[in-house]
Amino acid sequence: MRYRIKECKGSLIIRLDGKALDNEEARLHRVLLPLLRRHGVKVVINLTGLDELGIPELGVLGVIRQEVKAQAGTLRLYALQDDLRAQFDWNPFLQVYALYHDLESSFSQMPDLPMKRSA
To answer: Pfam families this protein is in (predicted)?
Structure first.
């Protein structure tokens, strides 16, 4: 999996591309998590480039969510294809994520929203 990271409007925008590798969690701890270790971090994850959303990819999202939550931050996901959105809609475990269609809508009221599913 490749991480493309940039900062925009005070938030970290992270694009996940490809497929999670066998050692993805170790890479995640080494490469990405140090950037998230700041109080109140705001993270928006772009899922456009994911090849699939399987157990390894969900593991990556779970680790990111835990770190953002530990930092009292905000996490949002966007650019879900219809098949990915369907997985989030029917699986109650995935409804902890706030889902948006695009980057601009993911910024709406960012500082005030808790880390949970949007309507």
So the answer is: STAS
